[in-house]
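call fold(seq) -> tokens
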Amino acid sequence: MPLRICMILPEYDGFGGGIMTFYRHLAPALVRAGAEVTVIEGSGYASAPEQAQRLIEGVQVEVLNSARVASWVERFGDLTSVPTLRRNLAAAWASWEQAQVHGPFDVVEATDFGLLMVPPILEAKIPVVMQMHGSIGQIHSYDPNTGEELAGLMALAIETEVARAATMIQTHSRANRNYWARATGRHDIELLLPAWAPSTAVELTSPDVRQVISVFGRIQMWKGPKVLSEALEQIPNCPDVHWYGRDLIDSETGLGSTKAELRKLYPTIWENRIITHAPVPPEAVQALQASSLLNLVPSTWDVFNFTVAEAMASGRPVICSDRAGAAELIEDGVTGFVYDGSSARALATALQRAAQRDPRDLTRIGIAAKERILSTLQPDKIAIERLNAYKAAINSKVAVGEVPDWLRQLATPKGVTGSNYRFLEKLPLRPLIDHILVRTARKLGVS
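ret:
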């Protein structure tokens, strides 16, 4: 009998981020290895009206139903004062409910992001693998979002406690494994590399290397734009940086864009020496990386960062912050360049060090990086390792932690319907009126 795997994920199909990249390579490889894989795709902020299951490379994929999410939101009326947490938990329970329609399954894999692992672990019906990609609580810790402080801390508490009760925890970088080992006290966290391969064949070297440095990633603070800006201020003769990625709301103010804030902080750098572009599809990423003098990953934190793998496969060298988990795959000076991701001075030194290398050396480094990454992350090889881990989870006799009462009370619905705004009675009236006036003006575009 084939192993029946259910994956509960925030993203799978279309144009997404690292989680989508992770599973679009892994899930089809598991199918090729003989497993049956069903994906429920969605989150508190990504769902759709009723849609039929569709087959994508042998994987059964179904989008989370928006009406189902709305129904569960109503049941979490006691969390009205924490709307982000309320919606994430509602979507997690809706995903779990929708997944069970397609069961039974032998094992469930659910992500830490979006709290999607909470319901299957709390109900403990079948073994659950909790895959650590970078959780809401972790992101809040590294890049606090103004106005979301309470939601971020509550999410981190839930994630940490639920992780203690998971059948198995997996992640794909040593740094993240160490983080969760410290947080949970568990020392049985599995370190398994992700499956990955380029979507199309990439030439080892581009015939025309552009004298630019390319960055691919969202424009948000923990992706390293400040460190990069400060590094460029120290080295005026560095080639221009082209940054491809979506601009996000500035986490420090909770309003406006990160790019606009960076332009204020570094007016001589942003749109002068760092030129921004909209996101591009994977095929375009490969072509741009393969023709860049250097590729750069300046993250001040990242569980893995698939841009590193993509850059290594391009045949051009990558300069990578040691705060990105995928930096563990790079041998400094041999298959790329690694620097202290917290230091602008270290990044400036790395940029100078790489840019001054002989072009033939850069070509050799790029070729070595490509050979390293394609052999290390080969999907069919990784799929076998993952299947063995699922079987170990199913047969696990390890006693996991009990779920405390506070967690069950917080993370399961109470049957409260609608919204409960009584907490507003505890706030002084004047700040409420002032906030309403400011918010109304902003909505009308007159602030």
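The longest strand covers residues 210-216.
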